[in-house]
Design goal:
This protein is an alpha/beta fold and 318 residues long. Helix content is 34%, strand content 15%. The protein has 10 helices and 7 strands. Strand 2, helix 2 and strand 3 form a beta-alpha-beta unit. Helix 1 packs across helix 10 and helix 5 runs antiparallel to helix 6.
């Protein structure tokens, strides 16, 4: 399979980048402002061209004609967990993404964010994004994709925007549900939570018999190494997980009580492979995990884009 090229914006801990790599894309550059997240990317993929930079200071002119620009824009401006200030929030980077798209004119665009971006309060802003993309020569659409439909053991709806050059946009097919039997938290974490010989691992697995609530990584302004607000912690408790913090390691053989997740366990519930490592302390590492676009969802969307671009390329050549 011939690879297509991708420029990754706001790469974070690599969830979207990993999924797109699995879909067949070759990243020519990954831009991320956070130093620890950049370390994570380099730790797992030493060959990736990781650029630590503020998106506002980055230019994409050298990547003109690339196949795909993809990115997970910061979520706090649109999250229901925040004030939903949208375009008034200084963390909103959609205008920068549009500028970069204008500079490099990719064949396709993939942007993802929290489900809240599709709320009526942001109708006008989404229309502005659509209008700007049309002015640049793209036809795009928004979808809510539920991560659990793609095998991720978590309640994690995401707002996803895909746009293609107007001449390539006909009959783009969004990915369909790939998994009719998503694994439960207990099934995914059974081996890891029992990795140090915890005697009650099997008993815990039976309790953790549903998918997880949405992991919340927080932002630089808010959020620490715990599993979210009170309602989220209550949902985790029903699964036999103490959501008040994160553990350094799996439970010991004689551990008695409600276990906490490790960063690795949280990452596995996001769809990261067990060998994906995160740089930094627990707060930084968990922020990278909790803010990630689950790799299996990114892979599914990436495969749909890859297939569409490949087919249109063949038709053009033919």
């Amino acid at each position: 399979m011939n690879s297509l090229t991708s420029l990754e914006l706001c790469a974070g801990g690599g969830g979207q980048a990993l999924g797109l790599e699995q879909a067949g894309f070759r990243h020519v550059a990954l831009v991320e402002i956070d130093a620890k997240a950049c370390q994570t990317l380099k730790l797992n993929r030493p060959h990736w061209n990781v650029i630590q930079a503020d998106l506002r200071d980055f230019s994409a002119t050298q990547y003109k004609g690339i196949d795909l620009v993809a990115g997970g824009m910061p979520c706090p401006p649109f999250s229901k967990a925040g004030k939903q200030l949208g375009q008034l929030d200084d963390r909103n980077l959609f205008p920068e993404a549009i500028r970069l798209i204008s500079e490099c004119q990719p064949k396709a665009v993939l942007l993802e964010n929290v489900r809240g971006l599709l709320d009526p309060i942001f109708d006008e802003y989404r229309n502005w994004i659509n209008h700007e993309m049309i002015a640049l020569g793209y036809i795009g659409s928004w979808r809510v994709l539920n991560s659990s439909d793609f095998g991720v053991p978590q309640l994690r709806p995401r707002a996803v925007f895909v746009a293609l050059k107007s001449g390539l946009a006909s009959e783009f097919e969004w990915p369909y549900c790939l998994s009719s039997s998503t694994l439960t938290v207990g099934e995914v974490l059974e081996d890891e939570i029992g990795s140090r010989g915890w005697k009650k691992a099997q008993e815990w697995k039976q309790l953790a018999n549903q998918i997880a609530p949405t992991l919340v990584g927080g932002s630089k302004k808010h959020g620490g190494p715990d599993l979210g607000p009170t309602r989220a912690k209550q949902a985790w408790a029903k699964l036999g997980v103490d959501g008040k913090g994160l553990a350094d390691e799996a439970p010991s053989p004689d551990f008695d009580g409600t276990p906490r997740l490790t960063v690795k366990m949280a990452a596995m519930l996001q769809g990261f492979p067990p060998d994906w490592e995160f740089a930094g302390g627990k707060t930084s590492a968990y922020r990278q995990v909790g803010n990630a676009f689950p790799p299996p969802v990114a892979k599914a969307v990436g495969q749909a884009i890859f297939q569409h671009l490949s087919i249109t390329k063949q038709l053009t050549v033919g």
